[in-house]
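Sanity check

After download, print the first record. It should look like this:
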Amino acid sequence: MKFKFKAALAASVLALSCAASSAQAQNTVNTAVDWSTGSPRWTTDDGQFQFKLRGRLMADAYSIDADFGGTTRDASSSGFGTRRARLGVDGKFNEVFKFRAEATFAGSAATWEDIYLEYAPNGMSVWIGNNYVNTTLDGFTSSTVHLTNERALVTNTFGRASRHMGVNVRKYSDNWQITGGFYGDSINNNESNNTTEARIGELRGSYAFSAARGNIAHVGASVRYRDRNQSGAFSYSSRPVQTNYGSSFLSTGSIGQKDTTYGIEGLFSKGSFTAVAEYQILEAKTLVEDLTFNGGYIELSYFLTGETRGYSANSGTISGVKPNSPLQEGGYGAWAIVGRYDTLDLSDGTLGKAAATTSAWRTAGGSADAYSIGVLWQPTDFVIFRATYGYTDFKDTQGIDSAAATQITGNGDAQTFTIRTQFSF
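Expected structure tokens:
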């Protein structure tokens, strides 16, 4: 049965808004304005109703240089791009009902990101609407607090940082959380053209042996099931590390009818040093054969100016820092260095092999190992500059180009460099 979350969400928000407006009309309510979070936040004197503007801009200057041995796949490009431009609102109707509506702007078009109603009694949260599919540590941690410019290859390739219409439930305590959800398609899909839609179910849990700032030890695990439900097929592909521009040199094509992804994660932070690692296995069911892919990363970082990264045990995610000595107070801001190793393997079965019964499979699949190094400068609470270099070593990304060929091809490398200017509130 097809989800009707869009209509239900709109009706819920409208009804609650009308109720709040009616109550305000009957009783004079005073509000206070707070600018401490970088944008105005209005709160009634009784603390029940709250409304806040939110947004972010990530503007990039980038370059990409890919070398595949003089073939037509060589690429060299540079330019300026807008990675994210978002504007929205946060708020609450009372102590247990909250809301968020946020859109991304690209050119003359706008698409929804989060738009949901949240029910949040003590120790629990329920989201209804377009929200983050419960995902991994890397995928669920906000892009505004990542130290590198882009998430890990495996996170992007396996689609572990996406939003869909659905219901998500979280139960948490002081040092653990468990979250599960069931989803359909994105709110941005045209419902009039949909006769079927994807089904997604996901479960993630995490436990913090220690959750204090500067002394964090976290482990977690997740599982996700997806079914395209006869509405196309999943594709698994990757650009070079640390860029969202240019071509995807590693790809399987659209092959996955259903898939199941298993992930484990770990986080350790002591003082200004942090180590994060994840590993994932994806099992895909295709019309030809079942395939298994995998990938992971390890990231090490250190704040040279003594800041410590924050952490929320309630959601099992990393939060941002505030400079010990902000620029506006005569200081130097927060400075950090970061390095990351990524690995991604999309080779299995007859992908890239002469034995493939489907010709497109003979030039698909492959693997990648990537290395990133970067520096971050955060002069104030709401402004960040990042410079990140990435090197990606691609192998066997074109497989065997015909049934008669014997030499696997598609080896090459790509170098990327991106400088990002970010402000968020």
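If your output differs, re-run the checksum step. Summary of this record's structure: The first helix runs from residue 5 to 26.
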